[in-house]
């Protein structure tokens, strides 16, 4: 009888230890998931802050370029206009992906005025009156975006 009791006791002890290991594994998996969730939340918050910072910096740079373009149009300096116009598009590409989900209406308006402004700056001959109007509208939209991004 003793060997049977020993065998039963050993089987019970083994079963209990396996069940205990299983719950420890689940517990550590749960803790790992909670850690991952907290990390994702932290990363998401950091991405939003970076996104807002990128938008503000990008809009400031674009406003500076658009203002320079306005001065060049007023001065009639076609050579500088042809260099400055494309800089608007290059700058926009650096942060437009941050703007699109956050401010879809303003994103569309920037695109609406940016594309013809850049194209007009590359035209030969340059239609200064039309380009000046497009640039002014672009500046207005960028000012709206700047206000929203604060």
TrEMBL record:
<feature type="compositionally biased region" description="Polar residues">
    <location>
        <begin position="39"/>
        <end position="53"/>
    </location>
</feature>
<keyword id="KW-0732">Signal</keyword>
<feature type="region of interest" description="Disordered">
    <location>
        <begin position="24"/>
        <end position="53"/>
    </location>
</feature>
<feature type="signal peptide">
    <location>
        <begin position="1"/>
        <end position="22"/>
    </location>
</feature>
<protein>
    <recommendedName>
        <fullName>Lipoprotein</fullName>
    </recommendedName>
</protein>
<feature type="compositionally biased region" description="Low complexity">
    <location>
        <begin position="24"/>
        <end position="38"/>
    </location>
</feature>
